[in-house]
Amino acid sequence: MVLARHPKAGARSWRGTAAMPCGPSNRRSAGREGDGLGCRGRAATADAWAGFMAGGCHRASNPLHSRREDDMAGVSRQGTLGNDVIITGNGSDTVHGDAITLTGRSRGGNDSIATRGGDDSVYGDAANLCDAAQGGSDFIWGGAGNDWLQGDSGVMLADACGGNDTLIGGGGNDTLWGDSFSLHERARGGNDILIGGSGDDLLWGDGNMPPPSVPGGATPSGGNDVLFGGFGDDRFVFTGAFGHDVIGDFAQGDDGLSIGAYPGGSLVNLGIEDVRLARIGQSTVLLVDADGTHGTITLAGFTGTLQASDFIT
User: Fold this and answer.
1) What angle do CA 197, 200, 204 make, to 5 degrees?
2) Which of these, 270, 210, 260, lies nearest to 238 by C-alpha position?
3) Which of 46, 49, 202, 214 is deepest in the core (most CB within 10 A)?
4) How far, in Å, CA of 302 to CA of 279, rounded?
5) What are the tens digits of pLDDT across the range 260-299?
6) In the chain, what are the domain boundaries?
7) CA 77, CA 38: separation in Å to the nearest integer?
8) Residue 161 and residue 132: Cα distance in Å, rounded?
């Protein structure tokens, strides 16, 4: 059900399975079975989480919509979460698809999140994935603003695992993280698809992967991701133990590659002299082994000659 304002309701009531006034500050929750809600107010909080409702909002039976400038957040819990549909308004929104923090063996739902105007921050699952929590396989579309999209979370710790997400930046100059802003310890990234859109975008197939705090300690690992920058001057970023990634539309002269490794425990931005190049069919493959990670980056359809200027160090 797409929520709509009831023609006979007050200015802050919306149609769903029930209608109740929505005050200036609200919390909204979509239920475990993929329910959705809609409210209107100056500031709202929504979490696609197990049936908790407060602040005068009502429950509907499908997608969750927001109006104006909202903050959509969840709460920490254990267990498997639902598959939710979340659509924001035109303000600058913050969305957590499932919760603020997922711990234990919690699993995020397979959520669909779409933002409209505004500069939005979206976490497909939660701000934090801890323990053995696992992110869902989410679809996130950024809309028209300068958006910050993270397929799973802001931070992944311990044995957390990212889902296989699809992120589309839309308009604006967007930053897309296939998994998380940062991965630590034994965290593992998923196999994601990132599409920048029409602006000058920054695409990370996985996220920041700093070296272990103790020499020889556990290190995170990235997934095998597919990245498309779209129109604009885009930057593709790879750090640490990234996987076997593919860039589908590398445009020499417009786009740039930023590759970071940790030989000796310190971040080093690699240049053309630090990678090996191979031509496979109509594609160019970069083999990166500066710190023993054996990652590869395939520039699909690119048969030109890479220059030092293609690498951002």
Assistant:
1) 75
2) 260
3) 46
4) 9
5) 887 666 778 889 888 999 999 999 999 987 655 679 999 9
6) 1-61, 73-310
7) 23
8) 7
Q: Contact 82/32 with Cβ under 8 angstroms? A: yes
In 3D, which of 133, 256, 55 has the Cα closest to residue 123?
Answer: 133
Q: Say which DSSP state 272 is in.
A: G
Task: Choose among 152, 160, 68: nearest CA to 106.
Answer: 160
Residue 70, C-beta contacts closer than 8 angstroms, at least 6 positions apart = 43, 44, 45, 46, 88, 89, 91, 93, 94
Q: What is the pTM of this model?
A: 0.78
Q: Express each pLDDT in 237-250 by its tens digit.
A: 999 889 999 999 99
What sign does the dihedral 30-84-21-70 (CA atoms) show? positive
- CA 84 – CA 110 distance, rounded (Å): 7
According to CATH, the topology of domain 73-310 is Alkaline Protease, subunit P, domain 1 (2.150.10)
If you search the block for the tokens 């701000």, which residue do you land on? 127
| Residues 258, 262, 266, 268, CA torsion sign | negative
Do 64 and 28 meet the contact criterion of CB atoms below 8 Å apart? yes
CB burial string 170-197: b at 16+ within 10 A, e below: bbbbbbbbbbbbbbbbbbbbbbbbbbbb
Quick one: tokens of 201?
């975008």
